[in-house]
Amino acid sequence: MFSLIIAWSFIWKGWALWRAARLKHVGWYIALLIINSVGIFEIIYLIVTNKKYAELNGSIK
After folding, report:
1. What confidence score (pLDDT) does residue 1 get?
2. Contacts of 1 (CB under 8 A, 6+ apart)
3. Alpha-carbon span 9 to 59, nearest angstrom
4. Cβ of 20: how many Cβ atoms within 10 Å?
5. For residue 18, how far is the Cα from the chain centroid?
6. How far is 61 from 1, CA to CA, in rounded Å?
7. What is the rounded average pLDDT of the residues 50-59?
8. Spatial CB neighbours of 60, under 8 Å, sequence gap ≥ 6
9. How far is the C-alpha of 22 from the C-alpha of 8, rounded, in Å?
10. Of 44, 38, 39, 45, which is closest to residue 22 (Cα–Cα)?
Protein backbone atom coordinates (compact mmCIF):
# COMPACT_ATOMS: atom_id res chain seq x y z
CA MET A 1 0.00 0.00 0.00
CA PHE A 2 2.77 2.41 0.94
CA SER A 3 4.57 1.80 -2.35
CA LEU A 4 1.38 2.67 -4.26
CA ILE A 5 1.17 6.01 -2.45
CA ILE A 6 4.81 6.73 -3.25
CA ALA A 7 4.30 5.85 -6.92
CA TRP A 8 1.12 7.97 -7.11
CA SER A 9 2.89 10.97 -5.56
CA PHE A 10 6.00 10.53 -7.73
CA ILE A 11 4.00 10.52 -10.97
CA TRP A 12 2.00 13.66 -10.15
CA LYS A 13 5.04 15.50 -8.75
CA GLY A 14 7.09 14.71 -11.85
CA TRP A 15 4.34 15.89 -14.20
CA ALA A 16 3.76 19.11 -12.24
CA LEU A 17 7.49 19.87 -11.97
CA TRP A 18 7.92 19.30 -15.70
CA ARG A 19 5.06 21.69 -16.50
CA ALA A 20 6.32 24.34 -14.07
CA ALA A 21 9.72 24.18 -15.72
CA ARG A 22 8.22 24.47 -19.22
CA LEU A 23 6.14 27.49 -18.16
CA LYS A 24 9.15 29.01 -16.36
CA HIS A 25 7.27 29.22 -13.04
CA VAL A 26 10.29 29.23 -10.73
CA GLY A 27 8.27 29.93 -7.58
CA TRP A 28 5.81 27.18 -8.34
CA TYR A 29 8.65 24.79 -9.17
CA ILE A 30 10.27 25.36 -5.79
CA ALA A 31 6.94 25.07 -3.97
CA LEU A 32 6.05 21.85 -5.81
CA LEU A 33 9.47 20.44 -5.04
CA ILE A 34 9.27 21.19 -1.31
CA ILE A 35 5.60 20.58 -0.46
CA ASN A 36 4.60 16.93 -0.14
CA SER A 37 0.84 16.50 -0.41
CA VAL A 38 0.46 13.01 -1.93
CA GLY A 39 -0.30 14.58 -5.30
CA ILE A 40 -3.12 16.93 -4.27
CA PHE A 41 -1.14 20.18 -4.62
CA GLU A 42 0.35 18.94 -7.88
CA ILE A 43 -3.05 18.06 -9.37
CA ILE A 44 -4.40 21.50 -8.46
CA TYR A 45 -1.41 23.15 -10.14
CA LEU A 46 -1.89 21.08 -13.29
CA ILE A 47 -5.58 21.97 -13.47
CA VAL A 48 -4.94 25.68 -12.90
CA THR A 49 -2.21 25.87 -15.56
CA ASN A 50 -3.93 23.65 -18.13
CA LYS A 51 -5.17 26.52 -20.36
CA LYS A 52 -1.86 28.40 -20.28
CA TYR A 53 0.08 25.24 -21.13
CA ALA A 54 -2.28 24.45 -24.02
CA GLU A 55 -1.80 27.97 -25.39
CA LEU A 56 1.98 27.58 -25.15
CA ASN A 57 1.84 24.42 -27.23
CA GLY A 58 -0.64 25.81 -29.76
CA SER A 59 -3.40 23.36 -28.83
CA ILE A 60 -6.01 26.13 -28.45
CA LYS A 61 -6.58 28.47 -31.37
Report:
1. 87
2. none
3. 27
4. 23
5. 7
6. 43
7. 83
8. 51, 54
9. 22
10. 45
